[in-house]
């Protein structure tokens, strides 16, 4: 596995100028489908968090930590996965990642208390980081001229899982009145996905890299220690606190503060997934318009939505609309372009490491987002929590955007 043949192309991100075939696109769709399954796993725990809290007697902050601790696993695995990709085949790292998060999801259903449950939840994040880093690396390699759009396609598949997961999970809970059933179903399905990838996805596709013959980096940094990467790292931390403050505890806010039923909560969260479908368009915006404009408007929208979600009207229709717009603006534009601009800040040879830095920082912050917003809510109320953790941090994100040196970002050019 540690062979020079796999390490070579990954280091330079080089492949021939031959167009991507329909078969390769089909194999990439299989990879996206596996990530959609991952999104289903991720969305299930916030949906069942209130039931878990009731059975085990966990506090609100502890429940929030359980909802988002998987991102700590992602943070711990993000950068090491980037280095693994320089030595192991992408397909091998991908399969290992799927196995880890599927096993962690399955074992969560059989937890005996807080200690082992938080361990299993963190393990799912380690597996997801490995899978996500690989899929982003493949996408950035094939679509080098439109990297943010390619990342948007990945987030689009997340939107599919974000819709199906809560709906199917809420249905499964309703059938058996048992919060463990969705975890078992989705955990086992992950191993089915592994078998499908093994049978249908060729290493000839996963190990190829981008054509630098027609896509030449002209301004990207030659080292990870550069101004743009540093600023984007802080912005990714802010993004993680905002995104996972919502994803980790918003369902609990709906169920415990607004007294929504599990099925109604699942419907609202699935509508959030509809907004994520704008990810491909959001990535196109990042490839088409100035980074400062895209990021500043995204952070502004995030701050406004954070205030309205936790302090605005409480009706299901309004909350559904706000959740849809959150998915569109925050997941569809902000998340996608933070990832895309991390990659554009460096030369193509550093794509794997740039992806690892993005995964580590955003999800590392997200690991504690639920605990922080839950703790603030328990002491000062949900309105204060949403304003402090989402709105104020978004304002800081806008300030950082102004400091970017976009003239030093990687801009691909056409071969004469």
UniProtKB/TrEMBL annotation:
<feature type="transmembrane region" description="Helical">
    <location>
        <begin position="92"/>
        <end position="112"/>
    </location>
</feature>
<feature type="transmembrane region" description="Helical">
    <location>
        <begin position="181"/>
        <end position="201"/>
    </location>
</feature>
<feature type="transmembrane region" description="Helical">
    <location>
        <begin position="156"/>
        <end position="175"/>
    </location>
</feature>
<keyword id="KW-0812">Transmembrane</keyword>
<feature type="domain" description="Major facilitator superfamily (MFS) profile">
    <location>
        <begin position="27"/>
        <end position="409"/>
    </location>
</feature>
<dbReference type="InterPro" id="IPR011701">
    <property type="entry name" value="MFS"/>
</dbReference>
<dbReference type="Pfam" id="PF07690">
    <property type="entry name" value="MFS_1"/>
</dbReference>
<dbReference type="InterPro" id="IPR020846">
    <property type="entry name" value="MFS_dom"/>
</dbReference>
<keyword id="KW-0472">Membrane</keyword>
<feature type="transmembrane region" description="Helical">
    <location>
        <begin position="64"/>
        <end position="85"/>
    </location>
</feature>
<dbReference type="GO" id="GO:0005886">
    <property type="term" value="C:plasma membrane"/>
</dbReference>
<dbReference type="InterPro" id="IPR050189">
    <property type="entry name" value="MFS_Efflux_Transporters"/>
</dbReference>
<feature type="transmembrane region" description="Helical">
    <location>
        <begin position="293"/>
        <end position="310"/>
    </location>
</feature>
<feature type="transmembrane region" description="Helical">
    <location>
        <begin position="316"/>
        <end position="336"/>
    </location>
</feature>
<dbReference type="GO" id="GO:0022857">
    <property type="term" value="F:transmembrane transporter activity"/>
</dbReference>
<protein>
    <submittedName>
        <fullName>MFS transporter</fullName>
    </submittedName>
</protein>
<feature type="transmembrane region" description="Helical">
    <location>
        <begin position="267"/>
        <end position="286"/>
    </location>
</feature>
<keyword id="KW-1133">Transmembrane helix</keyword>
<feature type="transmembrane region" description="Helical">
    <location>
        <begin position="118"/>
        <end position="144"/>
    </location>
</feature>
<keyword id="KW-1003">Cell membrane</keyword>
<feature type="transmembrane region" description="Helical">
    <location>
        <begin position="229"/>
        <end position="247"/>
    </location>
</feature>
<feature type="transmembrane region" description="Helical">
    <location>
        <begin position="357"/>
        <end position="380"/>
    </location>
</feature>
<dbReference type="InterPro" id="IPR036259">
    <property type="entry name" value="MFS_trans_sf"/>
</dbReference>
<feature type="transmembrane region" description="Helical">
    <location>
        <begin position="20"/>
        <end position="37"/>
    </location>
</feature>
<feature type="transmembrane region" description="Helical">
    <location>
        <begin position="386"/>
        <end position="404"/>
    </location>
</feature>
